[in-house]
Amino acid sequence: xxxxxxxxxxGFYEVGLTTYKNNREAxxxxxxxxxxxxxxxxxxxxxxxxxxxxxxxxxxxxxxxNKKKYLTAKYGAHQMLLIKKRLGVEMxxxxxxxxxxxxxxxxxxxxLELEDILNLDTDSERRHYVLEQLQDAKQSTDLVNKFIEExxxxxxxx
Length: 158
Known about the structure:
Keywords: Phosphoprotein, Protein phosphatase inhibitor. 50% of the residues lie in helices and 5% in strands. By secondary structure, it is mainly alpha-helical. It has a domain at 77-156. A two-stranded antiparallel ribbon has the order 1-2. Strand 1 (7-10) and strand 2 (13-16) form a beta hairpin. Helix 3 packs antiparallel against helix 6. The longest helix has 24 residues, at 77-100.
């Protein structure tokens, strides 16, 4: 039985005579020593020549099902500017509709879509479409007309 010259027995404990450069190395060695002392693992088998060259980890099917995949796209600066501008107009429409319908959330029956407004050719068609959608507005017609005028101006900027 050969003895390790870097270990010394003190009472019932073996003390290592290794010096470490920093605390992390010392902590790592300490935890490895404690794991070796408290847990037993059978000796590993030598690798056989028939073993595959790649390692295949055994993943649980539940983990694969729970993992969601997201696709992200990178837009150019000009495209992002257009997207932000359009989103700003849509958020403005949403806020104004809440004011026109006196509601705190989106519980009104207005189906006003910016895409539909932009697809119409003339301002008179757009005005007629918006008026049809805002028939049930709880605010005065002056406020509704002011909203329509502002909406047409903002739609022209898109």
